[in-house]
Design a protein that fits this description.
84 residues, mainly alpha, 4 helices, 67% helix, globular
Length: 84
């Protein structure tokens, strides 16, 4: 198994997640605008990071309007559509 070195400059820290959540709440952006925002924060736009961002984006988008179970089902469908 190949050892993977983590790059601390490209991880989702608590501070970066808070900034991203606030950006979504304040600006109501499209996901493409979100991708640009996280790129400016220094996060690589690889599949793992995009899926993580898509999950946050969808949750913030639907928060308060649906149950957690409903959101979970929507995330499965929407995540693939968003990161393409």
């Amino acid at each position: 198994m190949k050892k993977q070195d983590s790059n601390l400059n490209h991880q989702w820290t608590k501070q970066i997640r808070k900034k991203f959540n606030l950006f979504i709440k304040d600006k109501n952006p499209s996901f493409n605008e979100c991708k640009e925002f996280i790129k400016r924060l220094g996060i690589d736009l690889n599949e793992i990071n995009l899926r993580f961002a898509a999950g946050i984006y969808i949750f913030e988008k639907y928060d308060g309007k649906h149950t957690v179970e409903e959101i979970r089902e929507m995330i499965e469908d929407e995540t693939d559509k968003l990161i393409i």
